[in-house]
Give the backbone structure.
Amino acid sequence: MPVKDDDVDALLPLPAAAFHILLALSAGDCHGYGIIQDVEARTSGALRLSPGTLYRTIQRLLEQGLIEEPRKLSRARVDPRRRDYRITPFGAAVARAETRRLTELVRLARNVWRGAPEPS
């Protein structure tokens, strides 16, 4: 089923936690604690997701169809209580659209500040 631009645009802008979770899952399936570790490492500790924020956001992403729980469990799974998550094609489209949106914001900001006097 093709992803519609209107469906993608309706979810923008993404909350920061949602965007970082989608980025973490873009590297492959992962469980909650692994996502927390990935986000912290990717942001050099600038963003630390609490378990409450993580699982509320995961629930919202599941409801929106941006992520899913894989049907087939990993053989490497040691703890059966751990739930893995995977980004969906729709989730990847939304993450790419958010990346484009943020890139454009940075471009606009750089143009504003280019040549502007330094604050004193």
Summary: The mean pLDDT is 90.
